[in-house]
Amino acid sequence: MLLLRSLVFLAWMYGLMFLMGVLWLPSLFMPRTVIRDGVRFYAGTIRWGLHAICGIRTEFRGLEHLPPGPIIYAAKHQCMWDVFVPFLILSDPVITMKRELLWYPFLGWYAMKLRMIAIDRGGAAKTVKKMLNAAAQRASVGRQFVIFPEGTRHPPGVTTGYFAAGTSAFYKKLGVPCVPVATNSGLCWPARGLVRRPGTVVFELLDPIEPGLDRRALMSRLEAAIEPASEKLLEEGLEAQGRTRAELELA
């Protein structure tokens, strides 16, 4: 039954993605905010589908920790849902994404129109400087930057460390608060695989980290905030699902 519900949800999510991708094409010639609001609407439909089809609720905690104006939203990354959630929390998010994704039909077109930040991981110093200058321009109009310090998705309870280069470069250049975000999203939506499990996904915004720290202090503060909070959410989620840590590791 879990597999069937998961397949129905995937058909809903990707079917609607394709439909909206086609119907929203005229928005490429409209103000950027039209596409932003379309992505926000799509994220809301994913949230609805998760609840209605898979029995997965999404809860936001700590929204009072969100400062006004530009920030860095530095989040734990466990599944694809983590990428859409900022559109439900933040007023005008900027996603940092691999440069190669800009060449994808629909996705690349909308990302460029939304003025996302494309990262060339093999880029030289000149390329990095250009990227950071673009980020500063977006911050100047009050946008918020979404970064995943681990670099890629990991199952709940797993981390291979935080990568300082990108996070600290944006933090130093922009001079804005950095908001750590913990989650247990991988309990319900796996990093890889088809089955979505019923439960409550929690995204918890933690105390902002003030601007002005050096690289080592920033990354230490981020990891010390995100990891214990995510572990606590993991235990909470496992208890609600009636699962144990050993069952999670076997899965």
Word description of this protein:
By secondary structure, the protein is an alpha/beta fold. The protein has one domain (56-250): 3-Layer(aba) Sandwich (Glycerol-3-phosphate (1)-acyltransferase), CATH 3.40.1130. Helix content is 47%, strand content 14%. It has nine helices and seven strands, in the order ααββααβαβαβαββαα. The chain has helices spanning 2-23, 32-54, 81-84, 86-89, 107-113, 125-139, 164-174, 215-241, 245-250; strands at residues 56-61, 72-75, 93-98, 117-119, 144-147, 178-183, 199-205. Helix 1 (2-23) runs antiparallel to helix 2 (32-54), helix 6 packs across helix 7 (164-174) and helix 7 packs across helix 8.
Secondary structure: elements and pairs:
Elements: H1 2-23, H2 32-54, E1 56-61, E2 72-75, H3 81-84, H4 86-89, E3 93-98, H5 107-113, E4 117-119, H6 125-139, E5 144-147, H7 164-174, E6 178-183, E7 199-205, H8 215-241, H9 245-250
Parallel strand pairs: 1-7, 2-5, 2-6, 3-4, 3-5
Antiparallel strand pairs: 6-7
Helix pairs in contact: 1-2, 6-7, 7-8
